[in-house]
Design a protein that fits this description.
Layout: E1 3-7, H1 11-22, E2 30-34, H2 37-47, E3 50-53, H3 60-65, E4 68-73, H4 77-87, E5 96-99, H5 106-111, E6 119-124, E7 133-139, H6 145-155, E8 159-163, H7 169-177, H8 179-196, H9 201-219, H10 226-232, H11 239-249, H12 252-273
Parallel strand pairs: 1-2, 1-4, 2-3, 4-5, 5-6, 7-8
Antiparallel strand pairs: 6-7
Helix pairs in contact: 7-12, 8-9
Length: 275
């Protein structure tokens, strides 16, 4: 078996699929399911994969997973268990079922699948769409080391992959999952500050956007350390030092820590609500 099936091919699953194909996966070995015929035609034209619309074929998901080596579930969290139960009759016992849905636990997924089915929980973030994401993987009860390595190789086409115990997923989600929004929030605040200082709002937005993006490239260099990079541009008694002192006085580190904790707590609440 070599087929890879993407069930619910929204922007994230499409990004993963596109990354895999760009890295050498044969498009003829990929099948995707979506709800609308127009979306199916779009995916088929863009990626040269088999794309099936549920609106035209009620058996689309069952057909897609038949003889698949890996099945990647990309529907909304509330629909994951129902989808898992739907496809169960067509799954091979060795097929690896991967969920990229936030908050859905391995226990919840395994309960909806045939006993013994290999399951992996993955948590990608939005930069994966550009090939610069962070993806965590956590193996279920029946996932072997070899199967985890197979899933890791698939996700490495869209970014950095880390393997963590499921107990750490909520914490990871609070940093890398929600983290892009924190960076965008910072860029928004910087742009607003520049406009307050008299810059043209469009110019200020450009400066903030390019500065945050450029800093990200510096952080992506091998061996980069955020604290060291900050110190390198913070001259004693200079302008940047004055700004950092104001941030510290305002409690920015503590605010970020509290925000991350609240995000992790909310992830746990959502998981509990799906039981």
């Amino acid at each position: 078996m070599s087929r890879i099936a993407f069930l619910g091919t929204g922007s994230m699953n499409e990004a993963i699929m596109g990354g895999m194909i760009a890295a050498g996966t044969d498009p003829s070995e990929v099948v995707a399911t979506v709800r609308r015929a127009e979306r199916a035609a779009e995916l088929a034209e863009r990626h040269h994969v088999v794309a099936i619309a549920g609106s035209e074929d009620p058996q689309a998901n069952l057909e897609a997973v038949r003889d698949a080596a890996v099945v990647i579930l990309g529907v909304k969290p509330v629909g994951i268990a129902a989808l898992a139960r739907e496809i169960s009759p067509s799954l091979d016992t060795h097929t690896i079922v991967v969920s990229v849905a936030a908050a859905v636990s391995l226990e919840q997924l395994e309960a909806a699948l045939p006993k013994g089915q290999p399951v992996v929980r993955a948590m990608p973030n939005t930069p994966a769409r550009l090939g610069h994401g962070v993806v965590s993987i956590s193996g279920g009860t029946n996932a072997t080391a070899e199967q985890l390595a197979q899933v890791r190789a698939l996700f490495e086409t869209v970014g950095t992959v880390v393997e963590i115990p499921e107990s750490q997923v909520d914490a990871l989600s609070a940093i890398s999952g929600s983290g892009p929004a924190y960076a965008f929030y910072l860029a928004e605040a910087m742009a607003a500050a520049g406009a307050e200082l008299g810059l043209d709002p469009e110019l200020s937005a450009l400066l903030a956007r390019e500065t945050v993006a450029g800093a990200g490239y510096m952080l992506a260099e091998p061996g980069a350390d955020a604290a060291a990079l900050r110190r390198a541009v913070t001259s004693p008694n200079g302008t940047t030092e004055r700004a950092i002192a104001a941030f510290d006085k305002g409690g920015i580190p503590a605010i970020i820590a509290q925000g991350a904790k609240d995000a992790a707590d909310r992830a746990a609440e959502i998981t509990a609500s799906l039981d």
